[in-house]
Each structure stands twice: as C-alpha cells, then as structure tokens.
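Sequence only, no structure available. Ideas?
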Amino acid sequence: MAELGRPPSNRVPNPAAPGGEVPGGTRAVVTDDARPETVVDLEPHGMVARSMVRIVDRLPDWMGSIRFRLTALYSLLLFGLAAFTVAGVYAVLASRLSDERHFVSRDVTVVREVPGGFELTPTQLMTEYRSVEQLANERALSLLRTYSLSALGLLFLASLAIGWLVAGRVLAPIGRITAVARDIQATDLSRRIAMRGPPDELKELADTFDAMLSRLDEAFEGQQRFVQEASHELRNPLAVIRTNLDVALADPNPDPVELRRTAELVERTAARMSTLVDDLLLLAQLDEGRPMAATVVDLADVVIESADAASAMAPDRVVRVRVEDVVHVVGDHVRLRQVVDNLLGNVRTHTPPGTVCLVTVKRDGDDGLIVVADDGPGMGPHDAERAFRRFHRADVSRSRASGGAGFGLSIVNAIVTAHGGTVELRSDAGVGTTVTVRLPIDEEMS
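Reply:
I predicted one. Tokens follow.
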C-alpha cells in the first residue's frame, strides 16, 4: 500500500542509491512499479543543444556549405541596406506630409456656394481644403508603403539569386583547388593548379599550394633517389665480400697469401660499409634535428687538429693553416671537427699529389669563417651546383676507389645548418675550389 500523502507509484531514488542523482549531476532515474525506469535530463541547456544538433543534422547538405552561408550573408546585407533606405525615405516623407493638427477624414465636395444660396465662410473653406489635402497625403503614404514592401520582397528574392551567383563565382577557385587536391596521388605529385587572374588572396593560396606540391615532389624524388642510391652503395660492397668469400671457400687447398689478401679486401670493404652506415645514421639524426653539444669552441683549435690529421693521412698534399682572428662559436666540437675533416678529405680525394690547400680562420662582422681553398683541378658549374646533394660525386671512379660515397659535403651542409650557419662553394675548372663555412660567433668569448 502507498503511504498517505505520497504518490502511490513514481519516486526519485536516494542520491546515494544505485541509479540515483550524482551530486552535482544533471540526470535522475524515475521508477514506476508497473513501468521500467525512465531517465530524465535535468539540465535544460543539454536538451536545447541536442535539439539544435538534431535540427542541423536534418538540414540538406547544401545548406551547410560556405556558398549558402555567403549567399545568406550577401542577401541579408543587401536586404538590410535596402530596408533601411526605404524606411528612411518613408519616414522623411511621412514627416513632411503630415500636418501638426489632427483632422477628421471625410468625403467632401468643396464649392463656393451650396444650393439654397448658402455661402461658406473663408475659415470653413480653408478647413475643407486642408481635409482634402490630408486625405491625399494619407493616400500617397499608403501607396508608398505598399509599393515599398512589394519592392523589398522582390529585392530579397533577387538578392538571394545574385548572392548565390556571386558566391559561386568567388568560390570557383577554391573548387578548382579542391579538385586538384582530390586528383593528387601519393605516387604522382605532378599536378598543379596554375591559377590565372589578378594577384588576389585566392591566387596567392593557389600559388602557395603549387609551391608546396613542388617541394613535396622534390622531397619525394630525393627520398626515392636516396633509397635507391643507398641500396646500390650497400649492394656493391656486399657483392664484393660474397664473391671473394665464395672464391676462397671453393678452393680446397687455399693459398695462405691469397687468403690473407681476401681477408684484407673483405676488411676494407666492411670498413667502407661501416662508414657508409655511420654517414647515413648521422644524416638521419641531423634531419631529425636532434640536439648537439653546445660548448664554446675555438675554430683555430678545430682547424689545426684537422689539418694535422690530414697531413698525416696524405703527406703528398700540402695543408697550410692561417689564423687571422680569434673566433669562438657555440657548438659541438666533434661535429665542427668533422666539417673540416670532410672538406680536407675532399681535397685529398679530388686533387692530385702536390696540391696546396690553405685553411683560413677569420672574422667577418658577427660571423666566423672557415675558408678551405685549394689549387686543384676544380669542377664545372654542373658539378658545383650539385655538390651538396647526397651521393653526388664529381669523379665517380676516384671517389669509390678512395671509399667515398658522396656524403662529404652533404654532411658538412647539414652540420653547419644545425649550428645556424651556411656553406658556400665556388669552383672553376682548372683553377681550384673554395669552400666557405660561415658560423655565428660567441660575442662573449670573441
């Protein structure tokens, strides 16, 4: 039985009981003895938001487009401006045509004399004239109001049509950009928008999109070329190792001298592969932007250490060092030493014996310079332009004979860029090559 004074069926559970209202919550469970539980939303804002979402979901797709929104915006602006203008004109005319005194409207016939010989006084005659004028003014305002409302209705419909056409015209370049982006595939980035027209924001957007595609296309081509050339560089030493080992194992009575020669060849080839893998890992780390050591480095110390090592490795080349200024930079001593080592290694690889190389350390404004200049054979404009590309070799046979894989200047450029500097190469065939490394100096130490 239900208790006296309480409803016999519906009840709200205790908040502490399962299914009850959570403190600070917005939902409650109403139960009935004969019906299942009913969830009631106590938050009106949530119900309104969900209702709005359901209404928006039921709208046609074209009503959610930018073109429709621009059309509505154009139409509202044009209609609002026209309505404001018409309302202003109506208000001005109404104020000019209205008289300050109130007259009773009635139909009259104004004559000087009426049948029976009764003659109107001047005051009565003026009153009748004003009544007729008031009726005419009211009629004119009524017609003006009717025509204005009709014109506004037609103007609203015309503004919708014009706004739809104008919005479509304005958004046409965006549709073209969308079509090109949709047609682009991961393996083909050759499509371009190539938009023509005035230099407005949409053309700038299209040109920026084309420039991005060009950069992506160049990056993907470089990546594919890098993978192919890296595979080729690793395949060759592996083939050499396998061939020599097969020959050595095929002989049941191998000559110890030949075995030693084979072992030395395999060791040199493995060392070349190890150098190649180390260079690949270094380039990958530099591309990822991994942080390097940041200490104060004296460029003179770096150059002298590298020059001593280069002279020991290639005594038939003359390496001279000239320190014009004391230059300190903030960077990684080991990586900066590798920059100079690679530059002097290129001199050793690409120049004949007897070549003189001058390494200069000096200051140029707020930058420190390392200039490596040789009087070797140099290179042509074609090779000079591609010198910093990975796997590029000016002399393929000589580079491979010396164990080079074409990473020297690529690593130099990557390390210097990571230090906030730049690298410049100038070379003329038959004259020599000059590489200038420019690094920001440490003002406190220099």
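The radius of gyration is 45 Å.
Hope that gets you unstuck.
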